[in-house]
């Protein structure tokens, strides 16, 4: 070996030896001083918690019990002026060496004895307020956009690395106290030993015994866990007390298979399932809903400004499966976009009977026992940008391939083709039986109803009724945009088919299940051609409510005008179409002399009349299309209250309740039901300006404050501007429908 090479090797060896000696000396010094260093680190952490989060952290004693193991006693975390957050009597913790060398803290083992962790809410205050407020304050300190993928990666990795490979917890009480409601989970034992998970958890002391079992490999970030209870279903009474939601399940299963960062996205792959899920909530269904099996193989992704579920995921419900895609994107002011929601759901061709068999029990009572044949495929696409609500995209369709009904279920949907008895309900109580057939003298065949009435109602409610197959997707899109801009359900998308099905076959409960069942029945009737369109419209006109205890066009024509349906003129027809959404208010639109009020009503006549004239359904009229020809029959005029003062014309819209869906979602969270609220059917894509009782729906609420003349002039100008915009929108929409 050359001399130079020997020198290099010798110098290198001495250098490495010197570094090793220095490292050993440093490690020896650090080891001898580790107690003092630990005290300094803990003091710094305690001061930071006090300064930044108003948390008082107490530690009775701390000491090393090994090279990387600590023993702590009497740990407490108390927010300022709040209930204690954490109290632990004895904790022993070990740290993994290699992650620590790389600057990461990962636990190798954790032993915990006796203590509690609690979240307490008293009135509107919680013992987490100081922590959450600090985080919100920190998030506003910089204008730099946060990368959600970085946040997700740090959060998940920090969470998973704090779960040790060896875990031994005994007598740890987890509490949630919400004013007078409380839930406690007492972990008698919770262990991870050689990747096996075992536990015994007491719910509310002795209410139930729960178990978490399965496998866990925290260092590999892999989990496969099951949650179940001894001798009874899983159930948390707190949900029923707080939200009126009764939820039970036999088993919950969860898996985490992979965590990865690739191509600027943070991804998680996992799965979850539930068996024998039982739900009961007044906004969902009047009876228990039972889901025998539901599962999902989920691939989640988080990018710089978006989060979602990848289309490679699979949803399972009973015997069928579907491919979902969900993406939520944060607003981008530079690009001019708001929050963007993108949802898709697709299936392959499904066995139709398997699909119907997979519906949750108790959800669609009228379909119980139905027998079908053929194939069905479902496709849904939805894209909504909150900055451009009118550009919403919505398409939903069930495609059939050889589908047919072999046997009806609990309800025979072809009964509409024959005479039957219809029973309207109010506040869940039957009003009276109405015979829908020739044995009822008020029943009027479609050909004996004035064409003006037939055309006015379709123009108002569902102009494309005779050409669509039960649904109007454009009306759905307009409804979504309108309701979002209004911040409430102001406009619905129910077609005549949907209104008919709701009245004839379903109860009037404002529940999510009833709405979905309504859609399914409409699809079966329309796509199976079970009932001719003419018959559907005839029955619709003969059963809908037109006033207090006034049902059907025969009763309505006689009640208001002492006429037969064939004798109705254009003005009377438009008025009857006008009151369909709020029939009980009909008399309030008249004056004591039997003429119609000008305010709110005349503008509606002009809009509907012009649309009908444009479509060749009536003659153009420079006036108000029969508005001044309407006269209430004399016998009813004494029931009309006097109208003080003259009133201006208006095109305000009626605050329709959107078929109760606004209340429905409120019920999902607070359980409150408004059973006294009358049902008003929402309007369609055709122009449907509706009156409110006293003012347009979008006008500001009256107050007791005295306003200046300038304020009043500004309000009148703003009111006229809104009226013009509403009129222009309705006419443009009508023009689009007629193309």
Automatic annotation (TrEMBL):
Pfam families: Transgly
GO cellular component, one term: membrane
Keyword tags: Cell inner membrane, Cell membrane, Cell shape, Cell wall biogenesis/degradation, Glycosyltransferase, Membrane, Peptidoglycan synthesis, Transferase, Transmembrane, Transmembrane helix
Bias (Basic and acidic residues) ranges: 712-732
GO molecular function, one term: pentosyltransferase activity
Domain of life of the source: Bacteria
Signal sequence, start to end: none
Boundaries of every Glycosyl transferase family domain copy: 437-593
Region described as Disordered: spans on this chain: 645-739
Statement: the UniProt record of this protein carries the keyword Transcription regulation: no
Protein name: Transglycosylase domain-containing protein
Classification lineage: Bacteria, Pseudomonadati, Bacteroidota, Cytophagia, Cytophagales
């Amino acid at each position: 070996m050359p001399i130079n090479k020997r020198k290099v090797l010798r110098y290198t060896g001495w250098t490495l030896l010197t570094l090793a000696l220095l490292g050993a000396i440093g490690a020896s010094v650090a080891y001898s001083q580790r107690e003092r260093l630990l005290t300094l680190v803990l003091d710094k952490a305690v001061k930071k918690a006090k300064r930044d989060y108003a948390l008082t952290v107490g530690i009775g004693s701390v000491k090393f019990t090994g090279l990387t193991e600590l023993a702590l006693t009497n740990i407490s975390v108390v927010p300022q002026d709040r209930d204690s957050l954490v109290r632990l009597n004895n904790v022993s913790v070990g740290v993994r060496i290699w992650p620590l060398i790389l600057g990461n803290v990962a636990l190798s083992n954790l032993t915990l004895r006796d203590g509690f962790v609690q979240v307490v809410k008293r009135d509107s205050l919680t013992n987490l307020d100081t922590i959450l407020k600090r985080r919100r304050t920190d998030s506003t300190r910089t204008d730099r956009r946060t990368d959600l993928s970085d946040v997700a990666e740090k959060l998940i990795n920090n969470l998973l690395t704090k779960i040790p490979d060896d875990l031994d917890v005994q007598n740890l009480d987890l509490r949630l106290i919400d004013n007078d409601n409380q839930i406690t989970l007492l972990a008698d034992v919770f262990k991870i030993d050689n990747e096996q998970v075992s536990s015994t958890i007491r719910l509310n002391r002795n209410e139930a015994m729960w178990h978490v079992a399965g496998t866990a490999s925290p260092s590999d970030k892999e989990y496969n866990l099951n949650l179940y209870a001894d001798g009874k279903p899983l159930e948390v009474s707190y949900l029923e007390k707080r939200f009126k939601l009764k939820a039970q399940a036999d088993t919950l299963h969860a898996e985490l298979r992979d965590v990865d960062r690739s191509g600027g996205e943070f991804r998680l792959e996992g799965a979850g399932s539930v068996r024998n899920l039982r739900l009961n909530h007044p906004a969902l269904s009047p009876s228990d809903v039972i889901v025998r099996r539901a599962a999902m193989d989920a691939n989640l992704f988080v990018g710089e400004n978006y989060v979602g579920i990848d289309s490679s995921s699979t949803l399972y419900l009973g015997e069928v499966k579907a491919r979902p895609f969900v993406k939520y994107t944060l607003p981008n002011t530079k690009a001019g976009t708001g929050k963007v929601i993108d949802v898709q759901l697709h299936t392959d061709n499904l066995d139709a009977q398997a699909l119907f068999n997979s519906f949750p029990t108790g959800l669609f009572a009228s379909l119980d026992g139905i027998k079908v044949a053929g194939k069905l495929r479902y496709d849904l696409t939805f894209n909504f940008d909150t900055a451009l609500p009118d550009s919403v995209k919505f398409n939903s369709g069930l495609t059939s391939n050889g589908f047919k009904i072999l046997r009806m279920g609990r309800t025979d949907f072809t009964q509409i083709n024959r005479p039957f008895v219809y029973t309207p309900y109010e506040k869940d109580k039957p009003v009276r039986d109405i015979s829908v057939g020739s044995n009822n003298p008020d029943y009027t065949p479609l050909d004996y109803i004035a064409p003006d009435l037939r055309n006015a109602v379709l123009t108002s409610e569902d102009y494309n009724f005779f050409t669509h197959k039960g649904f109007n997707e454009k009306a759905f899109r307009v409804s979504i945009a309108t309701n979002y801009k209004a911040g409430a359900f102001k406009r619905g998308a129910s077609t005549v088919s949907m209104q008919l099905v709701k009245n004839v076959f379903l109860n009037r409960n404002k529940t999510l299940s009833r709405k979905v069942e309504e859609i399914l029945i409409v699809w079966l009737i329309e796509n199976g051609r079970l009932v001719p369109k003419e018959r559907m419209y005839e029955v619709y006109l003969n059963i809908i409510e037109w006033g207090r205890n006034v049902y059907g066009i025969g009763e309505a024509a006689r009640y208001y005008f002492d006429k037969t349906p064939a004798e109705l003129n254009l003005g009377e027809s438009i008025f009857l179409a006008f009151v369909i959404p709020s029939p009980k208010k009909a008399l309030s639109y008249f004056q004591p002399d039997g003429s119609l009020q000008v305010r709110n009503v005349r503008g509606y006549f002009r809009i509907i009349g012009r649309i009908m004239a444009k479509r060749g359904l009536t003659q153009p009229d420079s006036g108000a299309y029969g508005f001044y020809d309407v006269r209430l029959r004399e016998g009813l005029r004494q029931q009309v209250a006097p109208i003080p003062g003259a009133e201006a014309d208006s095109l305000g819209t009626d605050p329709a309740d959107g078929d109760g869906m606004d209340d429905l979602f409120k019920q999902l969270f607070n359980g409150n039901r408004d059973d006294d609220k009358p049902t008003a059917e929402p309007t369609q894509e055709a122009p449907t300006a509706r009156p409110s009782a006293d003012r347009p729906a979008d006008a500001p609420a009256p107050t007791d404050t005295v306003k200046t003349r300038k304020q009043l002039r500004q309000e009148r100008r703003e009111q006229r501007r809104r009226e013009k915009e509403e009129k222009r929108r309705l006419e443009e929409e009508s023009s689009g429908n007629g193309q």
